[in-house]
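Most newcomers find our protein records easier to grasp once they have seen one. To make this concrete, we reproduce a full record directly below:

===
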Amino acid sequence: MLSLIGETLPSLHCEIETVPSTSELLPKLKEKSFDLILTGAESDLEQDLALLRDIRAINPRVRVVVFTPSEAADGIIAAMREHVYAVFSRPFDPIEVRDLICRTFDGPAWDDGIQVMSARPDWIALRVACRLETAERVIQFMHELRTGLPDEVKTPIAMAFREILINAMEHGGGFDPSKFVEINAVCTRRALVYHLRDPGSGFAPGATEHAATLEDPVVHMEARESKGMRPGGFGILLARQLMDEVIYNEAGNEVVLIKYLDQ
């Protein structure tokens, strides 16, 4: 994994440094500024969070990505509360790690953008800033929280959640980082439920010309181009195919995604 990261960063005009122990890291941080810090995979999450507090005392704006052995949901929640940039638990996917690291250099200066309003493993409530970088981080945290689910269930859930979250940020919040999407994620023995509320005035589901439909999944592309919108518009259609239920409120600014786990 380190070799893959090392091959990627030079193309971004970045350099990478390694230190053999945490005792050597903190003095180096006092001498030099870094944009991103990756922890080792040998330490546990509690040790990494203690290190994070020391790092923040020196450089409160640096992004910290934590690699850790498989952790319980309580540990992932603790990492979110401590404003960790991202958590990856075993088995590590080097492609996912590389992609996240590349995105950090595309975004603005570090601003967490994730507020943990309430959190238990079976019910998590967040307020997240309407920024694409923040959306990708929330998706990664949710992925780690659902490590107990098989990939054939977890992957479509993550895809649907991503599409609806980005839709909420783009159409409801205009990708304005001063605006927030509210997320509630509830996991029961029989179902996984996401409730999202965006800051917009809503829309009429099924009557949006820039969104794909089953009847004609490509005609919307012309409408998007004429409005100067990014390519896409498949989010709602994809979510309906991947989740068991997708339910909007009357205004169209709140949505519930349900995936039944006992089928």
Notes: Residues 1-110 form a domain with the Rossmann fold fold (CATH 3.40.50.2300). The radius of gyration is 19 Å.
